[in-house]
Amino acid sequence: MEGPMKRICCLVFLVILGIAGFGGVYGAGECGKSSPDAEAWKLAPCISAAQDVNAQVSDRCCSQVKKIGQNPSCLCAAMLSNTAKSSGVKPEVAVTIPKRCNIADRPVGYKCGAYTLP
């Protein structure tokens, strides 16, 4: 009787885990439920400004940077993401965009990987 009882207990345990939604640990990342790569796509209007420090920064770019930059760790993660890298973004240039947009409440001095937001 001990064998069947162990199986029943294991089965009950697994059912309880399934009901509880246990499928692994899924914590929110830097950008909450969104991935840094998804946030990087929202920064598409900034592509030329993120490649050339002398390029003009568009109003659309500044609007997106201001919105995403409300969470500085998300902005950094997006600027350093695989999507940004594959788009030719230069992180040392990208981190200058909040200043170039004249965003008053930007996180000056925030460490963004090996870079610091001016």
Describe the structure.
The protein is mainly alpha-helical. A two-stranded antiparallel sheet has the order 1-2. The longest helix has 19 residues. About 15% of the residues have low confidence.
Strand order within the widest sheet? Answer: 1-2
Q: Which percent band covers the strand fraction?
A: under 5%
Number of DSSP E strands: 2
Summarize the biggest pleated sheet. Answer: 2 strands, antiparallel
Helix content: 40-55%
Average pLDDT level = 84
Which overall shape is indicated by the principal axes computed on the Cα atoms? globular
Order of helices and strands: HHHHHHHEE
What is the number of helical segments per DSSP (H or I, 4+ residues)? 7
Low-confidence stretches: 9-26
The end-to-end distance, rounded to whole angstroms, is 70 Å
Structural class by SSE content: mainly alpha
Computed Rg: 22 Å
Briefly characterize the structure.
This protein is mainly alpha-helical. The chain contains seven helices and two strands, in the order αααααααββ.
